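A student in our group prepared the protein record below, which I am reviewing. I have pasted the whole thing underneath without changing anything:
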Amino acid sequence: MYFSKILAQTNNIFNIDFNAVIANIQAAIIPISVLLGTVLVGYIVRTIVLARIAKWSETKHLFSKKIIFIIKSPMVIWFLMLGIYLGLQTSDVPQGVINIVGKILLALGIFSITLVIVNISAAFINGHSTAIDSVMPMTSLTQNVARIIIFAIGLLVILNTLGISIGPILATLGVGGLAVALALQDTLSNVFAGFYITISRQLRIGDYVRLDSGEEGYITDITWRATQIRALPNNLILIPNEKLTKAIATNYYLPDKQMAVKVPVGVHYGSDLEKVEMVTCQVAREVMQTVQGGVPEFEPFIRFNAFADSSINFNVIMRACEFTDQYLIAHEFIKRLQKRYAAEGITIPYPIRAINYSQEKAKPE
């Protein structure tokens, strides 16, 4: 009674209906409690799930750290949205408002899950690119297409959840797609050419290629418009996919990375060719076994091919593990061969031109 009198006097003084305020507070306690309780449960569930994933990764060696990083924050947001919806269900808010808010929260939740799936799929592709590459080579083009497909599916699910019919939308996109295709012929030709390059596997990321136009280097990526090639001077070359499909390209990594290294050599006409062959092969064999990039099990050989103006010419055939190894192999071979020839008395002649003076002085009859 005493408290009621004080409350009535306070209402008269400040013109405030404290009874209504208290009633509003009491009405808000349950929804707020539901919201906080749902968030707390979500935090506990997240902790348990992340711990299980971390423990699972210790034996399965999966990309769990990336998964944990990806779903750590969204899980709290999901339970927060669930708590808001459950809190509204226990409140005095009109049911129509609750339905609208529920659809909005559901759409946001589906969009958030779509983002998480996109990020997890990207992490999975990057973590298992070697295994996946045997089925579908991983490039920026294929990764972006995978993301677009996932986003499109998520968008269709959101529209269907909001009660929007997707049939007319698909029909409109079909008609609009034809107009877009006509307007973007060059762009689409590069896109489809990029798919052809990727699926044919004749030019792969990491391969060293040389085009008939002179460009050469390592393929670093295949995008929707161009193929990126990193030249040996560390410059980036962008070649439109359509032009690349029409170019004559040499892939130095197919059928395998190993390649022959041919070094031309010439010796004096007075040289013992049997000795030249033996000494040259010994030096080449030493290079194969000691120089980085050489193939130790390969047996080098030489082939004489010409009686030149000042020397007998031949080619030394060695083998490199990949394209760029040939430069160091040729470098070391030339240094060691010159030193060995000097020790063995084998002469590498300078260019010589003989002039017949008597013939030049002879007068015509």
